[in-house]
Specification:
The protein is an alpha/beta fold. It has two domains: 193 residues, Alpha/Beta hydrolase fold, catalytic domain (Rossmann fold), CATH 3.40.50.1820; 216 residues, 3-Layer(aba) Sandwich (Rossmann fold), CATH 3.40.50.1820. An eleven-stranded mixed sheet has the order 3-4-8-10-9-11-12-13-14-15-16, with helices on both faces. Helix 11 packs across helix 12. The longest helix has 26 residues. It is globular and about 70 Å long. The two termini are 44 Å apart. The model has no long low-confidence stretch (mean pLDDT 95).
Length: 539
């Protein structure tokens, strides 16, 4: 598409006022327009802390949207310092072109970060590669950690929970209303997310609130059939910060409204065992009473059975060695091995941990370790690194498998499944971040280096297979966003990626080559048996 980039600072009219963007050049010289830090809701400050987002007042004049604003306040996973701002309900739009014969498909990204961290801006996830294609890319900043996921059962307080999810819904309404102003097609919106961002997308797929706000979805390395919240975390947070009163919702809230946001987001009150079990203090929850904006009134696994989203196409997948992320410090921190020796149930999938009593959990944990590692207790040692990583990889793929089965049972639209398996020596940035150059494999988050420009990204020689993989990945995602079919002009000659059907699960295996292959993970049967024995529904 020939686009004339003669305007360097375009102004666009939105439903709430005018915004000025800027013309940028991507890492491979592709030009595009960026509008960063567009407000979509009122700043959630003072008494609006923890509350559902409110509509923003229209502004006069032209708002400067040429630079990314602060991310939502959080403890940085890189520096361990508190960074960002409570005033963070902004979205970022990158447009390949603002004028074309037909409006462009819109792709809306929800970042990951364990529900408590992450940055929606191009500082973290530069959309340069997408901007080689005819597409509009949007990313949403939403409240994180306690500020996004505190909940109180006292109905008079009007904080039923899931505020961070409600932020995203508010942003999706804004995007639906405004995409045509940025040359986007409001009837071709694709929601996609990664890790906890993928889980948020999946919860929005399960919620009745989002019907019509998007038309397809991509779930990358994050499925959560149940939300499984820890009890009394609001009270524990307040006590940790010095609250001396009783566990009375209104008093706990009063205290937290006065507390410093820096202290709230950096409060670390979970026990080592809770952390070892992968618990998070604040994340989406089932709302304890009905409100007009309720997002989750039951577990996603239940809502999904009758959800409107069974009628829309979906792509989902995960990385070949997802489980490496669960053993990053296994070889360097002796306490981690000790934890696996003493608490075998740490290796279980979350849904089993939450449905079984401690005796059952211990027994199942021991059985899992015996099955994968041929050892448990004191016999476990550092040589079991690969087998432990394999358990967690199976946990991730078992969730994926359960979601696909649910789609096949209840869905009326295609479900495309991939496995990302490109094991690059120097371009799999998260594996390198956690393990250095000595470890090989495709760790959790490694695939995002092939669709986004990360701070660690470098320019590739065009002859490298990583370079071709980037363009294939982006072309499949954009073609799916445009047509509901991921087989793009770049990949169609190489492979025919078909939707999942009953029988053996077939996946698009993405390495230097693309191949449509059976997902051969016979050990997933072991997981099926455990669920059966524990009486936990698979879907």
């Amino acid at each position: 598409m020939a686009s004339n980039y003669n305007e360097t600072t375009p102004v666009v009219q939105t439903t709430h006022g005018k915004v000025r963007g800027t013309l940028l050049k991507g890492i491979y010289e592709d030009q595009f327009y960026a509008f960063d830090g567009i407000p979509y809701a009122a700043p959630p400050l003072e008494n609006l802390r923890f509350k559902e987002p409110l509509d923003i007042e229209p502004w006069q004049g032209i708002r400067d949207c040429t630079k990314p604003l602060s991310k939502c306040i959080q403890v940085s996973s890189y520096t361990n310092l508190v960074e960002g701002s409570e005033d963070c309900l902004y979205l970022n739009i990158s447009a390949k072109t603002l004028h074309s014969e037909k409006p462009l498909p819109v792709m809306v990204f929800i970042h990951g970060g364990l529900f408590k961290g992450g940055d929606s801006s191009r500082r973290a996830w530069g959309p340069d590669y997408f901007m080689r294609e005819d597409v509009i890319h949007v990313s949403i900043g939403h409240r994180l950690g306690p500020l996004g996921f505190v909940s109180f059962a006292d109905t008079s307080l009007k904080i039923p929970g899931n505020t961070g999810l409600k932020d995203i819904i508010m942003a999706l309404r804004w995007i639906k209303a405004n995409s045509s102003n940025f040359n986007g097609d409001p009837d071709r919106i694709t929601l996609f997310g990664h890790s906890s961002g993928s889980m948020l997308c999946q919860m929005l797929l399960a919620s009745p609130q989002t019907e019509g706000l998007f038309h397809k979805a991509v779930l990358m390395a994050g499925i959560s059939m149940e939300v499984n919240s820890l009890p009394q975390v609001e009270y524990r947070l307040a006590k940790h910060l010095g609250y001396a009163g009783e566990n009375v919702d209104s008093q706990v809230l009063d205290f937290l409204l006065r507390a410093d946001a820096h202290l709230i987001v950096s409060a670390d009150f979970l026990t080592p065992v809770e952390k070892g079990h992968g618990n998070m203090a604040f994340k989406p929850s089932i709302e304890s009473y009905v409100t007009p904006n309720a997002v989750l009134l039951a577990e996603p696994i239940e809502l999904q059975r009758n959800s409107w989203s069974n009628r829309i196409p979906i792509i989902l997948g995960a990385n070949k060695e997802e489980g490496l992320i669960n053993v990053t410090t296994f070889k360097t921190n002796p306490k981690v091995l000790q934890m696996f020796q003493e608490y075998p149930d740490q290796v279980l999938p979350n849904d089993l941990k939450n449905h079984c009593d401690s005796v059952q959990k211990r027994e199942m944990g021991l059985r899992t370790l015996e099955y994968f590692c041929k050892a448990h207790g004191q016999e476990l040692n550092l040589d079991h690194f690969d087998s432990l990583a394999e358990i967690f990889t199976h946990n991730a793929f078992h969730l994926l498998d359960r979601f696909v089965k649910a789609r096949l049972a209840f869905g009326q639209a295609p479900t495309y499944v991939y496995r990302f398996a490109f094991d690059s020596p120097d371009f799999n940035f998260y594996r390198i971040r956690y393990f250095g150059k000595g470890q090989r494999g495709v760790c959790h988050v490694d695939e995002l280096g092939y669709i986004y420009v990360l701070p660690a990204t470098f320019k590739l020689d065009r002859s490298r297979p990583e370079f071709s993989t980037i363009w294939r990945m982006v072309s499949m995602l954009v073609h799916f966003a445009a047509t509901s079919d991921p087989n793009s002009h770049l990949t169609k000659p190489l492979v025919d990626w078909k939707p999942a059907s009953s029988g053996t699960l077939m996946v698009l295996n993405i390495t230097e080559e693309l191949k449509f292959v059976p997902l051969s993970m016979p050990k997933l049967k072991f997981h099926d048996h455990m669920f059966e024995q524990a009486g936990v529904a698979l879907f």
